[in-house]
Design a protein that fits this description.
about 110 residues, single chain, mainly beta, 9-stranded antiparallel beta sheet
């Protein structure tokens, strides 16, 4: 087993998904997720992509992400919107609630800890 892992979307099959219908606010967003790592203790790492739309989010997990492409707006309940574009990085902590709106198809890499 190698101690290195390259994030290569061509090396794994993308999982296709979408927001739960009760969380959808607008559009018909579709998700593609390339999960490269599932480590003991609830650690996940990979690449996620979403097409335009808006939906509610609620995080039970901790997540670090880095925007690779696109434009999204993340708005915490009662907070000002944050525009996310290529090069932006963020941590979302457990308990975060708000909306995720994809303006232009967005791709990010992520590390999630449950």
């Amino acid at each position: 087993m190698s101690h290195m892992l390259k994030f290569d979307p061509n090396s794994v099959e993308a999982e296709i998904g979408a927001p739960a219908p009760d969380r959808l606010i607008s559009g018909a967003p579709e998700f593609r997720t390339w999960n490269f790592e599932e480590a003991p203790g609830g650690l996940y790492a990979g690449i996620w992509e979403a097409t335009p739309g808006k939906w509610r989010v609620a995080y039970d997990e901790w997540e670090y992400f880095h925007i690779l492409a696109g434009h999204s707006i993340l708005t915490g309940d009662g907070e000002e919107p944050i525009h996310l574009k290529a090069g932006d990085s963020m941590v979302l902590r457990p308990g975060f609630k708000g909306t995720w709106e994809v303006i232009e198809t967005t791709r990010k890499d992520y590390v999630i800890r449950f």
